[in-house]
Amino acid sequence: MALSGDLPPLWDESRQLGQLFMMGFDGTSVTQQVKTLIEKYHVGSILLKAQNLKSAEQATQLVFDLQSLARQAGHPVPLLIALDQENGGVNSLYDEAYIRQFPSAMGVAATGSKKLTRDIARATAQELSSCGINWILGPVLDVLTNARNQPLGVRSIGDDPQEVSSFGVECIKGYQEGGVATCGKHFPSYGNLEFFGVPDDVPTITESLENLSQSALVPFRTAIAQGLDSMMVGGVAMASSQVNVMHACLSEQIVRDLLRHEMRFDGVVVSECLEMEALSRNIGISGGTVMAFKAGCDLILTCRSLLVQEDAINGLRAGLDNGMIEGFRVQESVQRILNMKAKYTSWEKAFTPPGIESLTRLQPLHTNLSTTAYNKSVTVVRDKKHYVPLSRVIKPEEELLLLTPLVKPLPASALFRQLQNEAGTVPNSGRSPSVDANTSIMSGEQVFRELGRLLTRYRNGKVSHTSYTANGVRPLHENLLDRAQAVIVVTADAGRNMYQTAYAKHISMLCKLAVGPDGIPKEKPCVVVAVSSPFDFIAEPSIGTYICTYDFTESALRALVQILYGELNPIGLLPGSHGQKPQATQSRQQWLVENFNEDRDSAALDVLLNQCQKESLVHAATLKNTTTSNFLLRDSNVEEAHFVVRNSTTKELFGFCTTYYFKTRGIGHIGAIVVDPARRKLSIGHSLHDRAVRALVQKKGIIKFQLGVRFPSIYLGIPKLDPLEFKRLRQWFAKLGWNTSLSTTVATVTIRDLTLWSPPEGLGQTLTNPDVKYDLVYGDDYNDIMMEHLKRCNRTEAKGLYQLAMSNKEGCGIIRAKRASDQSILGSILICRAESTIAKYIPALYKQPGMACISSPVISTKFSDQKSLFQGLVLLGIRQFKKQGLRSVLLDYAREDFTLDSLKSLGFTVTNSFEEISSDPMQWTMMSTT
């Protein structure tokens, strides 16, 4: 059957079919196998594995040779060159000199930093792109809905769907900024697999589609909304009341109905490798290829054997010839693949990769990024008796014992390369490589030899190091334990290597029962370190000191040693639900929520705010100087409705919530939820939130919900000063329905001492533009022209604030930037002092003598250099305040993705940061009607 359609003449049937395959090969240079695939079958995508890659330089040459081969073979467009580079223990490209090692996905999530996540993803992509690689098979978007005994382990971000979504989105953005295409995996989820048969059998998902939709599918849905380029569908079986399929990637119900139609994914869909043992045994490669393509896959993946790869190609051609596959489906898939290629490839890029020169330039920055990430990821889960740092409990002359399991070295290590070269090959598992890649295999104690050396080097004391096996505690271990004054026990995936669990518990018990030289019982310090899955001892309180590193790369182990010896302060947090202590299950209590009455409730609200300010929580800093009047905007352009939970007998307020609806933009804000510290966890906050949502959803014309409000400037979002409290609040709002993955970091910034401030050298000259003139205006005479400026810039929500500033001549003014040629306004900012009327809505400024504020920049999008214009306006504001002899200056709202860097270059520092979250009112409308 011939293909028809609108593709150019070069796209004959052979070339079109070749675009529908991604294939791997063995060898570190161009082999006859890959030549045949590219020249004879016109395969358009190549998967590189660790076995193909020796170094960055060799990888660059190999990719160049593959692209040259494709060009010579008449390929109209370059090859997609893909690989797995998840960091942690899953890296295909390793080069100690040029490729930086970063933590695993869960390790990065443990830092709690979305910015760091994005920076690491961008750095990873930049390194791959420098070698000519244009497609990364990531990020992993699986939610560990059953965290125990799952093969993914730390390759997953965690067990919280919202957190996986949030960090997954940052990975996608970072990869794309670094110049490579993205591929979410492993749809529909590898986060809760059951293994019913022999090891070669396909694992099974037993959850219903409803359960998957509420948890495991959330990150995939978010990633699709954020522009994910491609999706890998797994080869797992599915068995529930609604769906019963042998392999998800071969199922029309999963690929076409669920992924394409219901979730509206129109990117490239990639099948799991069809060479996995169970699939090839049960169905056969050619039949599996036809089934995968009919199900809706665009790219069929086969990894190794040329005979199998030819079988797959011939199977697809046969399916086309006998009418099982329609020609329009081939063109549909080819077009999706070409669209992705057009976005990330070109012949110019293929033949001029940045190469080693680029990697050399990036190396210092990426090395620092790697160190920062590892230092921030290591997590002290428990330390009941304060054994960390060890200097508290062991003297330099005393002996420290290190006990480690026998595990296979991580692929991203020199030791792995050494063992690989000695063995001459790397054994392949019959199971899906995506499922099996994290499995630990016993091979020797060399993996942790460097850890022992680091412990000795940093401590300058005696360290004994030996390994343990499934044989348990041996006489050698007991003798060393008797001799040592403290013990470190390392586990690596103890959930799937149960002997490690038993061994660590046994050693911990022996340490608790230890006896001192004088015969008196004296517990011996014991530290258990999980260097892979953190779930080894999360729920095991008998392990009193428990640390997690998330992988056992040299960088991770170095950070561990520095924490053990007190050179680093551990700040990592367990990702997901395990980041908090489990709370007793409580039924939700519904509180009576009333409208706020200023006359009745003001005094009680001031008392409530004062109580919160006295708390040793992040809210104390956020609510400093805040009183009732700070929340009451009294702006005709804003509909405000506030609510209270109160004791009508004592007149006390137990809780308070504010809402603001900016009519001109259709945005409703929840500006604050404040609960009496003595009455938290009683569902008061839930009741206030529900009432606020019901009030906002009824607003005519509402198009967006937002958590946090710029003005009044109290809570710009969820406060981030305290990482633990931020994580708790973030999860609380996520459970209430907010999509916390779609968030923006915003901040308040300050120059604390204007007397010491001077503009950065050369900045004034840099910002000079002969076509831009600045002036400072006061008073109602300028009201009309400024309102027109706000309207043109689509910033009508600032209308009330600007009007207030112009009517308050004493403490306020507006700095404008105008085009010299026609006097049109290009930008403006509002400036005010502590005594102005506006200051009462900015508690950090209100009644603070010597302090001033810059607020509400409005920049025309038609001006090409918005950043310089913004900096120029702010610079003039600072100079104005310095000239007036003021002490410090505050800027009350700065976005991390645009304005924050510009402000830091002017000398501002962050005083408080928040996570601003937006949501679609549609979900609230549905909630309010159920």
Automatic annotation (TrEMBL):
Keyword rRNA-binding attached: no
Residues of the Glycoside hydrolase family 3 N-terminal domain: 16-339
UniProt keyword terms in alphabetical order: Glycoprotein, Glycosidase, Hydrolase
N-acetyltransferase domain span: 637-709
Source organism, top-level taxon: Eukaryota
Family: Belongs to the glycosyl hydrolase 3 family.
Protein name (database record): Glycoside hydrolase family 3 N-terminal domain-containing protein
Species of the source: Exophiala sideris
Taxonomic lineage: Eukaryota, Fungi, Dikarya, Ascomycota, Pezizomycotina
